[in-house]
Specification:
The chain is of the alpha+beta class. The protein contains one helix and five strands; from the N terminus they run ββαβββ. Strands 2-1-5-4-3 form a five-stranded antiparallel beta sheet, with helices on one face.
């Protein structure tokens, strides 16, 4: 089995959703550890100046809410099995 960790976030001036990171792992445990690390450490495209970060765990990954000086954004970190 192959496991993927992907980060989806709003990128570009029009803030379209896109994959900003994707990494492949041979086992789920390693993928889960990397997903948590990215949820805590990934520097999102928006906002530029992060003041706070809230990490929420759900089925298959994390939803991360980042609050900047003037706006709040979010990104997803998912752990997915290749089929």
């Amino acid at each position: 089995m192959t496991w993927w960790v992907v980060v989806e976030e709003q990128r570009g001036s029009e803030r379209n959703w896109a994959l900003s990171e994707r990494v492949r792992f041979a086992d789920r445990e390693t993928a889960e550890a990397e997903a948590l690390r990215l949820a805590r450490e990934h520097e999102p495209a928006h906002p530029w100046s992060v003041k706070t970060r809230t990490v929420l765990r759900g089925p298959g990954g994390y939803l991360v809410i980042v609050e900047g000086r003037t706006a709040t954004f979010h990104f997803r970190v998912s752990v997915l099995e290749e089929v």
